[in-house]
Design brief:
By secondary structure, the protein is mainly beta. 3% of the residues lie in helices and 48% in strands.
Length: 488
């Protein structure tokens, strides 16, 4: 009998305290297993996966409450992926944790207790967590990520001829999925390669496994934007109906992570994206080349560039639009209940170069931005950024809603460098930010921005006048008209 089915029967009929507190650690192949940290949940050892650089994660399914113990051993036993740019660990009288440990997002109120090299805390709900020592922020510092999942109630029929089932272990291959197919990765399965979905309908990528991508991209210049097969952990092109649930994507190359091209009706649920290229650049989270009608929910992104980016559906040779003014639309995107960490750039980047892009009906709700980089590339690192170094990006953006967003580090709200673009209809509601906000830049025509219960470092923002601005910023116009499409 299927082991996952037995597990659900025990959950359904057990009725005891011990069954209510079950933990199912996700196995890790020896090639990726690390002893840098030791993790136990409810007394059970949960193996640690070395994603690359200084980033580690441990994954498990559980019911009830999870009592977690993390021991920092920082033993670099064996070789497990790229190690360039790793921070040299220096231990002083405060110990490895520098005197204080944090479990982020802070909104989950998981208060750790530190005792020497050991950290203890409890989790009462599923989610993605980062266990950090004091001062963690930049990409060279250590990161231990915990991916705490509830058991998957949507069990797949793995015997179907349309299911490609990858069992625990390492699978060295690229996978091309066609209409109606499902790729299922067991917990402990590692696909060392790329997933491609091309000209297809109703495709699913499910399970608790890991995709590790390490491709041939240049380390000295950006060619990770190309829309071609085997160039990202997941690449899509001309797809209608896509479900990705429960999978962890690790990108070790200087390339975008999940790139969707003209893809509609997609759901990304409980996915985890980790970029770990040593250059700390071009490791975007999810990029849209046109398309829309997409939900990103209950997910985690640690990007080495923008978490989300919208572009026109350019050809694989014309991303930079040096020869023509490409046009396209990204619309109806909802991002909800997510945890974000960008080590470079922004939460959103909208349009680029010579793109006549239209974006509309973009919503982000109930999301924690646990870290955001401090840098400057034409505009400050921001929640919402539009840049166009060649000043040809004649884009139109409308109807954006950011609601219940919690910044645990200071950032700018706006980095609008491109004067050729136009923006209208933005609602900022229930936004909090720790620390003094970074001054925003506004150089384009921007109309109809609404602030409701926005608190930056404890200061309430009621209008643009309450936002620190860079020199040269334009005023936000406040016309009497309302957007033609309702804000969601």
């Amino acid at each position: 009998m299927n082991s996952r089915f037995i597990f659900f029967l025990l959950l359904l009929f057990g009725g005891t305290q011990s069954l209510a507190q079950m933990v199912r650690p996700h196995p890790v192949p020896d090639e990726f297993r690390s002893t840098y940290y030791e993790v136990k949940v409810n007394g059970q050892v949960v193996p640690v996966f070395h994603a690359g650089l200084n980033v580690y994660f441990a994954s498990f399914d559980f019911t009830g409450k999870a009592d977690v113990v993390v021991m920092a051993t920082y033993k670099l036993a064996g070789y497990s992926g790229q190690t360039a740019n790793k921070e040299a660990i220096t231990i002083d009288d405060k110990g490895y944790w520098r005197g204080e440990a944090f479990v982020r997002p802070l909104s989950k109120n998981s208060r750790p207790i530190l005792n020497g090299n050991e950290v203890r805390f409890a989790l009462s709900e599923a989610g993605q967590y980062s266990v950090e020592r004091a001062g963690t922020s930049q990409y060279k510092d250590d990161a231990l990520l915990l991916f705490a999942n509830r058991p998957d109630a949507n069990a797949s029929d793995l015997s179907s001829e349309n299911v490609l089932h990858l069992k625990p272990g390492i699978h060295y291959r690229n996978v091309d999925l066609t209409s109606g197919q499902t790729l299922y990765l067991d917990a402990g399965a590692v696909l060392f390669g790329s997933i491609n979905v091309w000209d297809a309908k109703n495709v699913s990528i499910l399970g608790r496994g890991v995709v590790v991508y390490y491709g041939p991209q240049s380390e000295t210049h950006d060619d990770g934007w190309k829309n071609q097969k085997n160039w990202h952990p997941l690449t899509t092109h001309n797809v209608e109906g896509l479900t990705v649930r429960g999978i962890t994507f690790v990108g070790r190359s200087r390339t975008w992570s999940l790139q969707t091209h003209t893809t509609f009706d997609a759901t990304f649920d409980n996915i985890k994206i980790i970029a770990v290229n040593p250059q700390n650049i071009n490791g975007d989270g999810i990029d849209w080349y046109g398309g829309g009608r997409t939900n990103v929910i209950n997910s985690f992104i640690r990007s080495m560039d923008d978490c989300f980016a919208f572009f026109t559906p350019a050809s694989s040779q014309d991303m930079w639009a040096t020869t023509k003014n490409t046009a396209g639309e990204v619309s109806d995107i909802t991002i909800e209940n997510c945890v974000l960490w960008t080590t470079l750039a922004n939460v959103f980047r909208i349009g680029f170069n010579g793109q006549a892009l239209t974006t509309r009906n973009i919503t982000m709700r109930n999301t924690d931005v646990i870290h955001i980089s401090i840098g400057n590339w034409f505009a400050p690192n921001a929640l919402f950024c539009m840049v166009s170094p060649n000043s040809k990006g004649q884009a139109q953006h409308s109807n954006y809603v950011f609601e219940n967003i919690r910044f645990e580090e200071p950032a700018a709200l706006f980095g609008l460098q491109n004067p050729e673009s136009q923006f209208s209809g933005l609602t900022l509601k229930n936004i909090t930010m720790s620390g003094e906000p970074v001054p925003s830049l506004i150089k384009n025509k921007t109309r109809g921005v609404t602030f409701e219960n926005v608190l930056l470092n404890g200061k309430r923002v009621g209008s643009e006048a309450d936002i620190p601005l860079r020199t040269g910023s334009l005023p936000i116009e406040q016309p009497s008209w309302q957007p033609t499409s309702p804000l969601r």
